[in-house]
Amino acid sequence: MYRLCFLLVFLSLFCGCAGPYRDTCIYQDSGKTKPIVVVLPVILSSSVENDERICWDLAEEFSEQIRWRIFDSSRLYLLRDMGDASVARSLNIKNLNALNHLHIEGVGAAEFVVCTELVKHEETPYKIGKATLEEAGAVLALDFRIRVIDIRGEHPKVILQELIHHDHFIARSYLHSDYTRSVWGTEAFERTPMGMAHSRMAREIVSRVESYIQIAKS
After folding, report:
1. What is the pairing mode between strands 137-150 and 157-171?
2. Is the pLDDT of residue 113 over 90?
3. In whole angstroms, what is the distance from residue 214 CA to residue 86 CA?
4. Given this model, what pLDDT does residue 72 score?
């Protein structure tokens, strides 16, 4: 009976630890601490028009996607529940000289701050040269501005500022996807052209952030 109880406890512990592995520890395999990062809420540019098909907040969606991927990163440590939209707007100014003298608050013990802006989110008919082929499909164009700020020193320092552009082809059969039913947060949305486009953009953003922070920390 003792052996049986021991076996049942062992199996329950083993099964509880099974499943997808998430590297959320602050320490790397080498024993060093990961760079501590805060991801501020995504800003929507004034040029991003409201799409009547989208019944959710694009800024919230992209913020969650980027944060989730950094939370799952083996190279970075996400400091959650830090930084709000007002901090994001203050760090999104064009004048880098002014940025270098800002006193950044509300980000806890973070070493790096990620500030992003969705500049473009536009679907247009597919073109070859000057010919418009509406029946062939469409293109979803995404532009994202990334700014990563190193706040370890006395003054903030921009280590990455880049505009990422992606074009995503939408086949004719998906031109009229119903995004009121396949909304963000559902498995159906992840399989739509928009869902796949957003996921690809989020992966690209986090990849750039990881690379530049690793270089700055080395």
Report:
1. antiparallel
2. yes
3. 27
4. 92
Q: Which amino acid is at 20?
A: P
pLDDT tens figures, 11-57? 443 444 444 555 678 877 777 889 999 999 999 998 887 677 789 99
Which among 58, 79, 75 has a CA at the least distance from the CA of 67? 79
Give pLDDT, residue 175: 84
What's the rounded Cα separation, in Å, for the pair 127 and 125? Answer: 6
Angle between helices 193-217 and 58-71 (to 10 degrees): 50
CA distance linking residue 39 with residue 72, whole number of Å = 13
Number of H helices, E strands in the chain: 6, 8
| 164 φ/ψ angles, rounded to the nearest 5 degrees | -100, 130
Pick from 166, 169, 149, 29: nearest CA to 99: 149
How far is 171 from 75, CA to CA, in rounded Å?
A: 36
Instruction: Give the mean model confidence (pLDDT) for residues 182-211.
Output: 96
Judged against a pLDDT cut of 80, whether residue 83 lies above it is answered with yes
Torsion of CA 27, 202, 159, 85, to 10 degrees: -90
> Which of 127, 137, 108 has its CA nearest to residue 40?
108
- Among 118, 155, 156, 144, residue whose Cα is nearest residue 208: 144
**Under the phi-then-psi rule, with left for phi > 0, alpha for psi from -120 to 50, and beta for the rest, what region is 211?**
alpha
In whole angstroms, what is the distance from residue 218 CA to residue 129 CA?
Answer: 45
Report how far residue 23's alpha carbon sits from residue 76's, in angstroms, rounded to the nearest whole number: 9
Evaluate whether 82 touches 108 at the Cβ level (below 8 Å): yes
**Amino acid identity, position 129:** G
